[in-house]
Amino acid sequence: MDKLNDAVKAVREAAESLKQEPDLPSAKTKLDNSLTAAGETLNDQLDRVWRLAPADAAAALELVNQVIKAANIILSLLPTNHRLRFLFLHVLSASLASRFDVMAAVGSPSVKDLDSAVELARETIVAIPYLENSRRRRSALYQLSTVLEKRGMYKRNVKDVELALAAAEEAAASSTAADDEMALDCQVKVTKLLTILFEATQDISLVERAVAVADEAVDAMLKRGDEQTDEGAANRRQLGLNTLARVLGLRFEVKGALGDLDRAITLLDSSLPSLGAGDSNLAIGLDYLGILLGTRFEQQGDVADLNDAIRWSEVAVSCALSSDPDRPRKLQNLANRLAARAQYTGQIDDLELAINYAREGLRDAPPNHGERAKWLGNLGAFFGMRYALNQPSSDETDLEQATEMIEKAIQLAWNRGDALLFGSLVNTLGNILRYQYELGHGDRVYLDRAAGVLKEALSLLGPGPEQPFLHYCLGETLLLRYEHAKEGQDAEDSIEAYRQTLDSDMAPPTVRISAAVQAAKLLGGSLERWAEATTCLERAVRLLHVLTPPYLRNDNKQQLIRHFSGVAAAAAAAALNANKDPGHALQHLELGRGIISGFLLDLRTDTSALRQAHPDLADRFLRLSAQLSGQPGLEQCRGFQRSLPSLLPQEMMGEEPLGPNKARRRRSVSKEMELLLAEIRRQPGFEQFLLPPTGEQLMAAADPDPIVVANVSEFRCDAFLVERHQIRVVPLPQLCQERIIEESYMVQTGSSSSLPATLKWLWDALVRPVLDALGFTDGRLALEPKGTDPSDVIWPRVWWVPVGPLSGLPLHAAGDHGLHDRETALDRVMSSYSSSIKALIAGRQTSQPPPPLMSTAPGRAVLVSMSATPGMGRLEFTDDEVAMLSDMCPSMHLTPDQPQSLTRDDVLGRLRGCRVFHFAGHGISDPADPSRSRLLLKDWQAHPLTVDDLRGERLLNNPFLAYLSACSTAASEKLALADEGIHLVSACQLAGFRHVVGTLWTVSDAFCVDVARRFYETLRDEGATPDAAVCRGLHLAMHELRNASTETVMAYMMAATRDDNNEDKDENDSNNRGGRIPGRKRHNLLWVPYVHFGV
């Protein structure tokens, strides 16, 4: 206090001297000097108040009172027209505003302080002499804007905020380039006030003005950037960038333009690493970056965004002192991100942390905090989520707490006039009420109440970002009420609500697709309005590609797609019910399946025609394809991590480097590819480049052999028969989705007793009607003289494309395989498979048909035998299998290459340049994550050879054959991802192999040798037509094994499979080539699992 007292004393003495000698120049100078010094002292002490306040409110209050007292004394000593009087009017206004802030932090502010601060700020502007009417006036206008803003926010008085905006705009308009710090402060103030007014009025033009002002400020700073390299200039630039990012984020919230969200994130993540660890703008920017990344995750589902959001939110919280008034908001941001991850992963630990952080933030925030309503609603939503995740042992008090908190939050939001928050909270309440009904309470009152609050909210709110969520929630509620009471109006209103959601560009693709599917189920399943149902589902199919943009990691795409399995199948079925052309229905079925593999196929398409016509476009396409085809890891920019040494302890930094630079590059490349594809399609002759196959292209793929696409949906089941001249449909009324799922489960879990019945049922319900329609009505051997060898028969060929749960069933083996009655697919046709017609077309386009085996230079055959695998049982016959094949290689014009190290990297390296890859060993299908299905080599426990590894390869020589003599290499055990065809066989195809032989489930070690022997003998003997020989070779091998297994009777089968019924047998039993799934029994039809995928 001594400095303040000394300053007042000096002014008092100088004023007294001037009073005694008013004409003495030195007396006037002495007063001016003392006033200038006193002004500096008071401002210094006021700065101390701002620094003290977060940690010690009592000390700050005592000091600010002393500053106010000193300013009042000095003003009393000066005449009203003194030219320096404005200095103390200004500091007194600022001091009163500071006292209001200090008192607000402890819950007892006085609005009189703000009233006085406003009047003093106005007096300051009037008191500034003409000659000082430049920077001094801008500072005074800025002060007036600040105190008017405080009063407007406290009193919820829009007029004060408008006046504050006018003052800030006047200050900004009078700023000059020479005073860039003041200019930036004024522009930031204008931007902030425009956003406040928007929140009060919902006038979107205010957001547009805010973005324009912030853009102008950043542009001006960047133009001066080369001239200003000091630390202050860097801080000002970051302040401007933070501000622009915030208003871009706000514009995204109200208009839904993803470009704004991406730009805001790019601005922050490219600028924040340049700041020092202790810079306040760094902590502010990281906090908001976490919010933006969390928002983008909600929109696009990239879990890398969510994990980065959590990390940056943790940094922001760790930087905040316990007394920081902004800490509660940072805690809430972190809680929101953790809750989002809990919902994504189903892990309760993240949710418990979120609840704790949310409670802590609410506890520490002042009772009148402006965001209390939102935080209270979030906490309520977390309790509702915990109830859901803890099923079936949930505590119903969670739902009770959720409802109580959300209702209280809704009232607070309505009282504050916060329309966006009000809508969001009503949506949450609607979900909670509906959930209470769904979880067994069965009381319609919950639905009536939910429908009431949702309809009321929609009637009160205009167009905005919450509207599609409210419509979707209303649609779900009315659908449940329709199912409860069968009132027709509820059905119509539910459909309309879903349509409103589907039509909204502001809703995330996940919500729009869900709305389309729900509307279609109601339109088709209940009301039989198939044309409308088809429209909804076809839009959903197109949105699947919006949901999975190229820059998303494959594991993220899997996570998103699994929620919408069967959408494409339903779209095709609905189209048929609506009497649409079969080709039209099939095109949409193709469009909605194999999305991940389809993207990789597009990147690896044949560009020879494009190169010949437009070499520059071809070069750009290949360059971008190479950048997009590599799967990004979690590793990120280490420079960003190094710039934050004092913010986080090392254990929080983790081993993974931070920063979304790699993801940002993939987004940029993805956008560049989008523009390039548009440019390519503008060139004559390339209008269809990488677009889905047309009807004509689908029929061309059936030349020379027909393609059967077996479709399964809840609406109906059909087979699309694609022939070179037509696409037609064979209805399959004996098939139903529920039975297919049940049979697929029985087969995959290995019930040997059920398999013969399953094969007979498949024959009656699907395969025989299809083969009859194609004209393949008799067993081939039955048409030949008695005793004819199967290898002398000309067998027709069929390509099977099973959809959804059918992909796990052996269509090629359908029939009754008794000794006498051979009504089977195996006796009528040769079978090959493809995951989609697009994959078949792409495989044929990527590589030319191979010449006869003996007409080319010797090729290399990579032969891998894993008789001994760490952690697995010994396989007795893999060495015999590979030795047999090695001996046969010269006769097939192949040179055997048997790796010695048998590690993942060694084997992958040898695939490059090989012609044949034969693997004999253990294979494991991973039902939890199909992309982690793997072949087991010596280092499999640390470095497994997975689907991801194989499909990440691009074998430019397009090798001829991969033969995977292991268990479950073509299995699709994850039903929700069955249409993606994620297994080891498809991965080899994506890597470049023209043909792949694999298995649907466990295979016998001993019989693998016989199958491989017969297969390669055919390939050797019929090598003049190698493509046909692959399919024919496997067909003949299965014929031979099928006949041997039946003629040797069950005693031989039991000896081969070893204690079929022994459930306690070692799960790594060496008789089969896969990790044994608990509960799996051995099949007695050992030939059935073998399948051929190819071209």
TrEMBL record:
Q: From which organism does this entry originate?
A: Corynascus novoguineensis
Family annotation (InterPro entries): CHAT_dom, TPR-like_helical_dom_sf
> Which Pfam families does the UniProt record give?
CHAT
Name assigned to this protein: CHAT domain-containing protein
Record region (Disordered): 1057-1078
Which residues belong to any copy of the CHAT domain? Answer: 757-1094
